[in-house]
UniProtKB/TrEMBL annotation:
The chain crosses the membrane at residues 16-37, 49-72, 84-107, 119-146, 166-191, 226-249. This is G-protein coupled receptors family 2 profile 2 domain-containing protein. PANTHER family: G PROTEIN-COUPLED RECEPTOR 157-RELATED, G-PROTEIN COUPLED RECEPTOR 157. Keywords: Membrane, Transmembrane, Transmembrane helix. It is found in: Membrane. It comes from Ameca splendens. Residues 14-282 form the G-protein coupled receptors family 2 profile domain. SUPFAM superfamilies: Family A G protein-coupled receptor-like. Residues 306-338 are annotated as: Disordered. Residues 306-321 have a biased composition (Polar residues).
Length: 338
């Protein structure tokens, strides 16, 4: 990678890395959505919230991959469209991540599933509505376009020549990212403290509760694992924040190849990280996936064996028929000789 004025040129290797992480996030988000559709007994409210987050990650992966693959150089209609979709999906991802943390806080700490479930409609209105309004306004005011990879890694975002581009960078993502950094750790710490206290209290009365059915436990392992979403979010997103701060300081370090690569990986890996944590590392879902794959492999093997044996049986029938015809001819010939 090299810098040319205010433009950051990307090496092919950096593009390949970002495209690979986009592909992994696309597959990971798709797998989360498919498992939710196929297995109806897994459709708990926390899982539904994770699915909505996965939809935004899916859109982000597709739009980022298109931008990196296309290597835009101007404010073309395709660049604007890609920038608008990625802006909407990225901002919506911030809101859904915070929404999940709020839901878990109310559900686990406040011990009110009814109140937590009643917030889902509000989550939809805010997490889809606010990003949509911001994105449509930015497009109508001609703020979305080619940004020379100043705070991106090949995709389009806020136009580099916009006089108020810092303001629109804040409105179309960064301000919500900063708020997420402040909100998520507080909620996460409160949730972990409550879980720790609950476990301590439970250990004192474990003999009394020894026969309690697991289904009656206050929060399932899946709900507890969802608290890791904010941690994953912060670890992946911090690199883009660092580059934005360096842009404000007009520091050339923002064009450092390692920092640019980490930014590209972080912004495009949310779907893959969620899939690893909440599909591959979740025992019930992993078991079902393994069972389904084994069944598919067995079925394919059986079909292959059947297709291989069919020509052999057909050839055997032909050979048997030919043999009978030859025997009949021999019998006729013997009778004629007599």
């Amino acid at each position: 990678m090299m810098a040319s004025g205010n433009q950051t040129e990307l090496y092919l290797s950096e593009q390949v890395v970002v495209l690979c992480t986009c592909a992994l996030s696309f597959l990971g988000s798709s797998l989360i959505i498919l498992t939710h559709i196929i297995w109806t007994d897994l459709r708990t409210t926390p899982r539904r919230l994770l699915v909505f987050l996965s939809v935004t990650d899916w859109l982000s992966a597709v739009s980022y991959a298109f931008g990196v693959w296309s290597v835009f150089r101007t404010d073309s209609p395709e660049c604007v469209a890609q920038g608008a979709i990625s802006t909407f999906a990225n901002t919506s991802s911030f809101f859904w991540t915070v929404s999940i943390a709020v839901y878990l806080y109310v559900f686990i700490v406040r011990s009110s599933q009814r109140v937590a479930d009643s917030l889902v409609l509000l989550f939809h209105l805010v997490s889809w509505g606010v990003p949509l309004i911001i994105t449509v306004t930015a497009v109508c005011l001609n703020k979305i376009g080619y940004d020379a990879s100043e705070v991106s890694v090949g995709w389009c975002w806020v136009r580099i020549h916009a006089p108020d581009r810092v303001l629109w960078m804040l409105l179309t993502g960064k301000i919500w990212e900063f708020l997420a950094y402040l909100t998520l750790p507080v909620l996460y710490i409160l949730i972990k403290r409550h879980i720790h206290k609950a476990h301590m209290a439970l250990s004192e009365y474990r003999p009394i509760l020894a026969n309690r059915p697991p289904s009656q436990s206050f929060s399932s392992m899946a709900d507890v694992k969802l608290t890791l979403i904010p941690i994953i979010f912060i670890v992946l997103r911090i690199w883009s924040t660092v580059r934005f701060i360096l842009l404000l300081a007009d520091s050339p370090v923002r064009q450092n190849p390692v920092l640019v690569t980490l930014h590209g990986i972080g912004n495009t890996s949310q779907g893959a990280a969620n899939c690893v944590m909440f599909v591959l590392f979740t025992q019930p879902i992993r078991s079902r996936l393994c069972t389904s794959l084994c069944c598919c492999c067995s079925k394919c093997r059986a079909e292959a064996q059947l297709s291989d044996s069919t020509p052999q049986r057909h050839q055997a029938r032909q050979d048997s028929s030919t043999q009978r015809e030859e025997e009949e001819e021999d019998t006729s010939r013997v009778q004629t000789d007599r």
